[in-house]
Amino acid sequence: MNRSKTVWFVLSVLVVASMVLSACAPATPAATQAPAAQPTAAPVATKAPEPTKAPEPTKAPEPTTPAGPKPYPVAKDPETYTVLTFGDPSELDPHYNYETAGGGILFNIYQGLVSFDGKDPTKFKPVLAEAIPDSVATEDGGVTYDWKIKSGITFQDGQKMTPEDVAYSFWRVLLMADPNTPGFLMTEPFFKVYDAAELVDPSGALDGDSDGLKKADPKKLEAACQTVKDAIKFDNEKGTVSMKLAQPWGPFIATIAQRWASVVSKEWATANGAWDGDCKTWQNSYGIASESLPLRDKTNGTGPYKLDHWTPGEEVVLTAFDGYVGEKPAIKRVVIKNIGEFGTRFASLQAGDADRISVGSAADWAQMDTLVREECNADTGECKEINPDGILRVIKPLISLTRTDIGLNEQIAEGSPFVGSGKLDGEGVPLNFFSDPHIRKAFNYCFDYETYIKDVQFVKPSVHSR
């Protein structure tokens, strides 16, 4: 939710004090004395009267200029952008993060080969690549992409980006692809598997099992890593990266436009304890818990902003990266605060203490709409005034990529507060309630889809901004 920073001017109240005039009774006159004799003065010469001037012509009244629209409130600090949201990043490692709180931050710190081009989610533009190549079919049913990598790009630690950094970033996200990461979105088009461990054991028995993977045959482990490296090769001299997919994949460009395909510095990542690219050791970086990730709270991208600090549960602060190759951001500092209660976020927006807030549910949109001044069409750019006292501009219609899903947990964790008594006694359900396929089918048959779509999935197709 975007909003201008508002400066409210308080009108002074003019207090008029009443003045009471008191009438005074006249005093008794004193006796009049006879005037003293004075010498007679010589008469004063009389001046001739001044000539009469012609009256000034009456000026025509100045034309009245009709009052224009009331200006939007002025930002308190144009160089700082304050966001109030809810939720905290799970981590700031772009190859591991798979949630929205961290994703929005990482998009501003890191860059990939491509990105979305404007508001259309089906159009893309090159970023760290010179151009977006066409796929070329191979004899074995796969496709290749040959990328020319831009030169002169600098990481936020001062290192120059190379094609090897690009290749390493793809190796890393693929080989870290345990069930807790977004890597499965990449392993499927590249290798027709859902988890990196399946390159070692195709049965899937090692999926998510970091300890089991470490005990696997070292030759199979090394071969799996080499399979990944053979699919993504780099040439620093030519400035290229070539990719070989096991199958044509329609959403491939859309997939690598996301932050999990961000390019990181291999040298920096290795120095900070991440995998060093050696095929003999990659299994040690598989299945690491989020809180133990070497790059959990460290960042080093090529994007317009760099991490100033992250205080978990409180705030994330970003500052502009002076070495960014692109249009320099006018906003020099971004403060993202974790405020759980919508009323507090909304009040801060009204008071001018926040430039953007997150809406918690569809019910909050109605309250946000009370602050809208103009409604603008995303296609034509035309705007119409809704409320002259509003402080927001709403843009619609826009395509939303937000989605809410329901999953039936077949083995609920011990201690869950959502199962009541934990028994099928009218006061709760057992932890394995949804493990019965008949229960799952019954749930789907009885579920009120219309209400769910209307009240839960409903996403207002608009963006509010200043």
In short:
This protein is an alpha+beta fold and 466 residues long. It has helices at 100-109, 163-175, 184-191, 210-214, 218-231, 252-256, 266-271, 342-351, 365-369, 437-446, 449-455; strands spanning 80-85, 114-116, 124-126, 136-137, 143-148, 232-235, 240-245, 305-311, 315-320, 333-338, 356-357, 372-377, 383-385, 392-396, 463-465. It starts with 79 loop residues before the first strand and ends with a strand.
Commentary on this structure:
The protein is built from 11 helices and 15 strands. It has helices at residues 100-109, 163-175, 184-191, 210-214, 218-231, 252-256, 266-271, 342-351, 365-369, 437-446, 449-455; strands spanning 80-85, 114-116, 124-126, 136-137, 143-148, 232-235, 240-245, 305-311, 315-320, 333-338, 356-357, 372-377, 383-385, 392-396, 463-465. A 5-stranded mixed β-sheet has the order 8-9-10-1-11, with helices on one face. A 4-stranded antiparallel β-sheet has the order 4-5-7-6. The protein has a 4-stranded mixed β-sheet with strand order 13-12-14-15, with no helix packed on it. The chain is of the alpha+beta class and 466 residues long. Mean pLDDT is 85; it is low at 1-46.
